[in-house]
Write a structure and sequence with these properties.
Layout (H helix, E strand, L loop, with lengths): L16 E2 L6 H15 L12 E7 L3 E6 L12 H11 L5 E8 L8 H10 L4 E5 L5 E5 H4 L9
Parallel strand pairs: 4-5
Antiparallel strand pairs: 1-3, 2-3, 2-4, 5-6
């Protein structure tokens, strides 16, 4: 069956949240972080209680959300950052500007696997977190992952 014949009631799953990427960077990143905070309650952290949420911003202003999803088989657990990236890629987005990461325990940064996955899509992406005093912190993924691995195209 061809995609165009799938029916009138089927719609694309593009992000329902859009931000103006031309706005002030601090305001833009604060808004992105608020989106991550808002979605944190959706995390499935049944075993650790450590809830994490990520809000990924693409170059068109679309925001893709992700939360951590734990599993009885710990290796099957997936982090919020990779959920957000997988959602964005599923929706056809590949060029990202920033990712905000929030946790139930305050300041948090992507784990090593997530850093590598983020690096795959953008070596200059901004990673946003917030310290316990409410001060926003922004680091480039290349600062968090020195000499990241990337196959040549």
């Amino acid at each position: 069956m061809r995609k165009e014949n799938l029916g009138k009631n089927l719609s694309q799953t593009k992000s329902s949240v859009r931000l103006n990427v031309e706005s002030d960077k601090n305001e833009l990143y604060e808004e992105l972080y608020k989106i991550a905070l808002k979605n944190m309650d959706n995390a499935y952290a049944k075993y650790s209680g450590f809830r994490v949420s990520a809000a990924l911003l693409d170059e068109d202003g679309n925001v893709f959300n992700g939360v951590n999803v734990e599993n009885s088989s710990y290796g099957a657990t997936i982090c919020a950052e990779r959920v957000a990236i997988s959602t964005a890629v599923t929706d056809g987005s590949r060029k990202f500007i920033a990712i905000a990461v929030a946790s139930s325990d305050g300041e948090v940064w992507p784990c090593g696997i997530c850093r590598q996955v983020i690096f795959e899509f953008s070596e200059n992406l901004d990673v946003i977190s917030m310290d316990s005093d409410g001060k926003m912190k922004v680091l480039k993924i290349s600062e968090l992952l020195k000499n990241g691995f990337k196959l040549k195209d």
